[in-house]
Amino acid sequence: EVQLVESGGGLVQAGGSLRLSCAASGFNFDDYVIGWFRQAPGKPREGVSCISSSAGSTYYADSVKGRFTISSDNAKNMVYLQMTGLKPEDTAVYYCNVYATNYWGKGTLVTVSS
After folding, report:
1. Three state DSSP letters for 20-83
2. 85 pLDDT exceeds 90?
3. What does the alpha-carbon distance between residue 48 and residue 40 come to, in Å, rounded to a whole number?
4. Which terminus of the chain has fewer Cβ atoms in its 10 Å neighbourhood, N or C?
């Protein structure tokens, strides 16, 4: 059974940092792209970043480029999203996803106060 469990969200002031974690299980982690998405209140879900550990490649949305860093630990089946320079507009529920599948975690809430 595929499972994705996010953690690390919380309340932070603008300009602060948070590190999100995604614990993955139930599939061959190395074979898939893992993505972070987010959904702000009243807005559609949007892609934030993704990583292909086997290809050594990453992607970032323009809105987070230069502020967020995605990484993975294949030995632990973990994906991380280091977020710095947080802005109020980063406030959202952040979800981990096995890219191009319907496997999603339940999300972790990030709230950035101004």
Report:
1. EEEEEECCCHHHCCEEEEEECCCCCCEEEEEEECCCCEEEECCCCCCCEEEEEECCCCEEEEEE
2. yes
3. 12
4. N
The strand pairing partners of 82, in sequence order, are 19, 69
Rounded CA-CA distance 56/48 in Å is: 17
The confidence score (pLDDT) of residue 32 equals 92
* Structural contact between residues 108 and 9, judged by C-beta atoms closer than 8 angstroms: yes
Sole residue written with tokens 């949007």? 46
Closest CA to 99 of 31, 43, 44: 31
The answer to whether the CB of 6 falls within 8 A of the CB of 20 is: yes
Q: Token digits for 10? A: 């919380």
Tens digit of each residue's pLDDT (9 = 90 or more) over 27-79: 888 889 999 999 999 999 999 999 998 888 999 999 999 999 999 999 999 99
pLDDT value of residue 94 = 98
Q: What is the DSSP letter of 99?
A: T
Mean pLDDT score across all residues of the chain: 95
